[in-house]
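Exercise 3.2. Students should predict the tertiary structure of the chain below and write it as structure tokens, then compare their answer with the key that follows.

Predict this chain's 3D structure.
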Amino acid sequence: MAHDATAFITTVALAFVMAFTLGFLAQRLRLSPIVGYLLAGIVVGPYTPGFLIDAELANQFAEIGIILLMFGVGLHFSVKDLHAVRGIALLGAVVKTVLATMLGFSAAHFLWDWSPGASLVFGVALSVASTVVLTRELEARHKLDSHEGRITVGWLIVEDLIMVLVLVLLPATRGLLRAGDLPEAEQLGPLAEMLALAVGKIAVFGAVVIFVGRRIAPWILGQVARTGSRELFTLSVLAIAFGIAYGSSELFGVSFALGAFFAGMVLNESDLSYQAAADSLPFQNAFAVLFFVSVGMLVDPAIVLAHPVWLTGAALITIVAKFLITFIIVLAFRYPVGTALMVSAGLAQIGEFSFILASLGVELKIMTREVQSLILATALLSISLNPFLFKLIGPLERALGRVKWFTGLLNRYAALPAIPKAAVSEGHTIIVGYGRVGSVIGAELTRQERPFIVIEYDRMAADKLRQQGLDVVYGNAAAVAVLEAAHIATASLLVITAPDGFAAGHILTQARKIRHDIKVIARSHSTEQLAFLKRQGADLAVMGEHELAIVMAEYSLRELGVAEHVIGGVLNDLRRGETFSPVTRH
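Answer key:
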């Protein structure tokens, strides 16, 4: 162990070097870098021979990481986003959390003979997914802003709020949970009083922070922003985050994590919240790495290897049971199979809240370090396997589509009334997706009295459009049956408004199998997708950023007095994807 004077730099240096090395290796192996960070902690931890860093210092860094992680959760907490998917997010998250907790509790208490307190904390820890892991997976697949992404993020927000409440209530009930017995009838009164007091404290704290803080904190950010100093602005964001976190602990007795969450919610009210998030992100990422390293240090491989049955059971609950529970819940809300698979895959893992809960359980002496090591090992396994679950979405959707009893049951339960062939005008347009782009096209077709049919993947949106009098087919447009339900055999134009060019290409291919001469217009998200759509034979492939650049270039050249014939040539080159030099053209 290094001398005290150098312990700080030794801890930071070893943690970052090992985290970078193993994180990079994990990324190359197409795993989440978090897997590498956790393995780095195991390597430099007290249970593994070789390098050894100061565990106390690492725990302090972890506390900073927790504060910044929770601050980030609060900063991105959007009541509007949650409201948009409130039905499935609220009920789905609560039902899934309760069922997963019951499974974890039952396995630990009745099969493995753990104490009720340890079993309960274990079950709750397995029920909550990692916000960090899931948002990174969705971003990597360009799905964060998709409908599936909004559902999953809304679901995560509710889960996070449930865990925040659990973190507050756990210290208040530690005496009862440590006793090792379920509460007797005469204990319910004092227990209810303790819970009411804990909830009351958090309610008062939340009211003070939200009603006072959201007036003061944004004002402070505004004043600092006017100075033009990036350093002071970044410092003000960190000062508010840590100041509220520390003040909440000292004045109200709540955790640093909860205080940081409310600090993020306060800054979310400011117009400068996006800049605050951008400036705090590097610190959040750096200390999050140290947080995951410190978590890895707590894993004792010997304990995990000594209890393979425990690890197998925990992994099955986390990955398989949670996947199936979520899948059934999403289908029950009459969403497509693809949406159900996407949400289920994203939530079939555990992460940072499970780590925080496990550490708190050990600190309160509710459970042992054996259980903590098991939870951390389960997280490591589930995070490692999560990318592979996402890769199985397509094959699983196709496989389920071939199961007749499943598709029959789904269609009877979820299908909209069919559009009679007699009611369809020959030569109609099919619009796939009726969001911001599709609705504009539909409105113009309506104005021109041109018939069209909408294919909508979002069941709730499809119901609303039907109520508005539109002809709507519900389902995935890549399915032949859905295209046939939209009477593609008599259509003259197919407009695919979904931003994923690769998905649009698959729809195009299926459509041309039925109607080889149909005109297809498709939208893409990147130049690679644009090229893919052109290779697939799209009559018109559009990338939003490219079209925006053309319009801006045209306006700029006209404002600069460039001759019209030159502008025409430039625009033609841009539309063909060619580059040009303003100097040589003049």
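Discussion points: Strands lie at 429-432, 452-456, 472-474, 493-496, 519-524, 540-543. The first strand starts at residue 429 and ends at 432.
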